[in-house]
UniProtKB/TrEMBL annotation:
Pfam families: MoCoBD_2 (PF20256). InterPro entries: Ald_Oxase/xanthine_DH-like (IPR016208), AldOxase/xan_DH_MoCoBD2 (IPR046867), AldOxase/xan_DH_Mopterin-bd_sf (IPR037165). This is Aldehyde oxidase/xanthine dehydrogenase second molybdopterin binding domain-containing protein. Transmembrane segments: none annotated. Gene3D superfamilies: Aldehyde oxidase/xanthine dehydrogenase, molybdopterin binding domain (3.30.365.10). Residues 3-88 form the Aldehyde oxidase/xanthine dehydrogenase second molybdopterin binding domain.
Length: 91
């Protein structure tokens, strides 16, 4: 739940608009085992980094629109071929 909350906060959207999908080796290859609360913190940090990348890509479209709703903004980004997928790496 904390990952969804972080995502909603970073994008400034309601929590109900965030969907968390289960992880499996096709989506996240090379993932390591988890243990303790460190995993949650690491995932949230990676999510923040990925959200920052997406917000930077979305910024030019958002600036062209006047106070867009999230769905309208994302639809326009999709129509403008903005890559709406990103990943954060913890180094």
């Amino acid at each position: 739940m904390c990952v969804a909350q972080v995502c909603a906060y970073k994008f400034g959207i309601p929590l109900h608009m965030v969907a968390v999908k289960p992880s499996y080796n096709v989506i996240s290859p090379n993932s390591s085992t988890t243990g303790g609360s460190l995993t949650s913190e690491a995932v949230c940090y990676a999510l923040i980094k990925a959200c920052d990348i997406l917000l930077e890509r979305i910024k030019p479209i958002r600036e062209k629109m006047k106070n867009p709703k999230w769905k309208d903004l994302i639809n326009q980004c999709f129509s403008s071929n903005v890559m709406l997928s990103a990943s954060g790496l913890i180094v």
